[in-house]
Amino acid sequence: MGKKNQTARITEVRNRKASHEYFVGESFEAGIVLSGTEVKSFRAGKAQINDAFVRIENLEAFMYQSHITEYDFGNINNHNPSRVRKLLLHKRELLKLKSATDSGGTSIIPLKMYLKNGLVKVLIAICTGKKLYDKRQDIKKKEAMREANRTLSNFRR
Question: pLDDT confidence of 71, banded at 50, 70, 90?
């Protein structure tokens, strides 16, 4: 018969600025503590982590400045869209993250939020900030790769 009318659900939110602004180092997968309306809003694709960062406080990880829009069909008990959210990590991972940030010059940046087996996970990484000349070099490399791919595709035709 006909196809079922299914709406495509967003199951991943990426931090697109992270690879442009930072050198990405070691990454970790963390769980995140969310309320029910936050999960529903995330599944509807109304979340962003472009300006988010992670801090380690008292051997607990917290994600700041992430935004999950209030659920459209919620009530007065809806969540605060920009609240601080706790991340769930193993103790050895927390110690590794803490030692990396205490040494200075590094930050913990969320790279993406996604669904895995029905649970929302966050991929975080230890990152070092790029300088302006580093960004320019990356742009030159990308342009050179594009040009090489164009010439190869023209040659194959």
Answer: confident
* Burial degree of 22 (CB within 10 A; 0-12, 13-18, 19+): buried
From the centroid of its chain, how far is CA 133?
A: 25
Tokens of 91: 């103790």
Are 114 and 12 a contacting pair, CB within 8 Å? yes
The residue type at 97 = L
- What's the N-to-C CA distance of the chain in angstroms? 41
Any idea how long the chain is? 157
- Which has the closest alpha carbon to 56: 9, 103, 119? 103
Distance CA 85, CA 61 (A): 9
Of 137, 105, 135, the residue nearest 18 (C-alpha)? 135
pTM assigned to the model: 0.77
